[in-house]
Each structure stands twice: as C-alpha cells, then as structure tokens.
C-alpha cells in the first residue's frame, strides 16, 4: 500500500526520499515518486528498485494520501491544478515551497495542508525540520507526518507567520555557517602561519563538530560555553570582545537583507499565483 508520494525530485526532494528510506520509518514500496526528467527516474530506481516511480504527477495524487510537493514556488499552482481532479478530502499535501501560503494551497486543491521547511542536515539524519499544519489536518495525520520526519531530524512546530525567520535559523544556516567559517579560515591564512589551508579547515570543522556535541549532549547554552572557554583576562575573552562589538551589526544587516529578499520573492510568487488581493 502506497502511503507517501513525492512530486519533484530536485535537491530537497531527492534528499528527503533518500533520508526517509535510510531512517527506516517508511518502506520503499510504500512510496511513489514522480519527475519529468528521465535520468532522475533512473536514479530513483537505483536507490531502491521497489520504489514506485512515474512521469505522471496525477498518478501520485491518485495513489498517495500524503503528497510532498517538492517543486519551485512558481510551479506549485501548475502542479496543484494538474492533480486537483485526483485529490480527495482525505489528501494531505506537504509543501516545501515556503513562499506559497497554506491558504492558497487549500483554496486551489481542497486538500489538507502541511507546510514543511526541511534542512540539508537531514541528509545526515540531523538538524531541524519546521512544520505547520492547517486546521483540517487531524492529530493522527500530524503525528504520522512528524514521526516520519522525526526519523531524519528534530521536528519543530512553528506558526506559519514565523516560518521565514525560523528558516533563516535552520534551512539557511548550513550555508551561513559555512560562509562564516570560510571567512575565518581566510583570516587565519592572512596571519602568516605555516599552516596549510587544509589543516586550518580540518581544525575548525572538527572543533565545530565537537562543540556541537557539547551543546547537545551536555545541554550547554551559548553563555555557558563562553564561560567555560573564555576565562577572565584570557586570550579567548579578547576574541569574544571583538565579536561582541562587531558581529551584532553584521548579523542585523544579514537578517535585514535576507528577510527583504524573502519579501520580494513572496510578493513575486503571490502575484504569479493571482493573490494580489489576498
């Protein structure tokens, strides 16, 4: 019996399919995936030959109760209209298109709706998945979705209006962290040491890994970590002072820019969806 369908097999769609299978929370034969790209169909078959695959999005809608819509925001309306004849009142659509409002998906499809913002970190069974359910989603259905996603991440329920900022702190964060520590490595290289860039990157990455484990396994907060390392009058304290003086402005600017960009994208998407008056 097919329980879960995926429409779209791009970066996030393929990551979710692969990670969910590895988690063991769902069997390959309980899934169906559709994509218009022939090479991707072959990739899916190589992943697990007993996954159902199709070039027809409507087949997914006919056969699955839970349907992950993993296409670009501007493609969501087209997909919903395509599959609408096969959607029932029992269908639960799970959209990863953060800029497409849940109310729009409900109005077009007539389905129950869950919004999901996954993270690349689910590829290694970690990180945070953000979810929000429409009122029509039952407790049993929300529990099934959250249990499924709980196999590849920690699930955090947030209000739809908080999704954009929460996504900056979760889905975007691997890229932000990589950019921060790439710049830190660049600065280290400018200090004239004989360390190779490869050595410096390894030192930082391994220390990041250990620091994350301390946060999680020892239930440490940011202030506690700083207190443990930055002894009064010591070397680390001097570096922390620089961060405290300079970084707030950098991060305020980063959030201003990214949230402004989200607003522009959201308005473009809503205009294309015909939601100017929404």
From TrEMBL:
One of its GO terms (molecular function) is pyrroline-5-carboxylate reductase activity. GO terms for cellular component: cytoplasm. Residues 3-97 form the Pyrroline-5-carboxylate reductase catalytic N-terminal domain. It comes from the Bacteria. NADPH binds at residue 57. InterPro entries: 6-PGluconate_DH-like_C_sf (IPR008927), NAD(P)-bd_dom_sf (IPR036291), P5C_Rdtase_cat_N (IPR028939), P5CR_dimer (IPR029036), Pyrroline-COOH_reductase (IPR000304). NADP(+) binds at residues 7-12, 35. Coiled coil: none annotated. Residues 160-262 form the Pyrroline-5-carboxylate reductase dimerisation domain. Gene3D superfamilies: NAD(P)-binding Rossmann-like Domain, ProC C-terminal domain-like. Pathway: Amino-acid biosynthesis; L-proline biosynthesis; L-proline from L-glutamate 5-semialdehyde: step 1/1. GO terms for biological process: L-proline biosynthetic process. Its EC number is 1.5.1.2. Catalyzes the reduction of 1-pyrroline-5-carboxylate (PCA) to L-proline. PANTHER family: PYRROLINE-5-CARBOXYLATE REDUCTASE, PYRROLINE-5-CARBOXYLATE REDUCTASE 3. Belongs to the pyrroline-5-carboxylate reductase family. This is Pyrroline-5-carboxylate reductase. The gene is proC.
């Amino acid at each position: 019996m097919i329980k879960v369908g995926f429409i779209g097999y791009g970066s996030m769609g393929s990551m979710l399919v692969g990670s969910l299978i590895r988690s063991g929370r769902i069997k390959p034969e309980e899934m169906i995936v559709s994509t218009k790209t022939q090479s991707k169909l072959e990739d899916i078959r190589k992943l697990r030959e007993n996954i159902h695959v199709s070039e027809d999005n409507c087949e997914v809608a006919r056969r699955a109760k839970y349907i992950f819509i993993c296409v670009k925001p501007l493609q969501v309306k087209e997909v919903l209209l395509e599959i609408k004849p096969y959607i029932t009142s029992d269908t639960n659509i799970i959209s990863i298109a953060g800029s497409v409002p849940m109310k729009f998906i409900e109005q077009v499809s007539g389905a129950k709706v869950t919004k999901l913002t996954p993270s690349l970190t689910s590829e290694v069974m970690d990180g945070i998945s953000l979810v929000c359910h429409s009122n029509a989603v039952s407790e049993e259905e929300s529990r099934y979705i959250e249990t499924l996603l709980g196999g590849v991440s920690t699930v955090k329920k947030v209000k739809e209006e908080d999704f954009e900022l929460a996504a900056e702190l979760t889905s975007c964060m691997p890229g932000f962290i990589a950019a921060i520590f790439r710049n830190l490595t660049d600065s280290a290289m400018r200090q004239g040491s004989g360390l190779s860039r490869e050595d410096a990157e390894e030192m930082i990455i391994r220390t990041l890994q250990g620091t994350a484990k301390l946060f999680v396994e020892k239930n440490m907060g940011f202030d506690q970590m700083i207190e443990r390392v930055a002894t009064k009058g010591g070397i680390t304290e001097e570096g922390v002072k620089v961060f405290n003086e300079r970084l707030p402005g950098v991060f305020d600017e980063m959030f201003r820019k990214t949230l402004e960009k989200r607003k522009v994208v959201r308005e473009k998407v809503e205009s294309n969806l015909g939601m100017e008056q929404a």
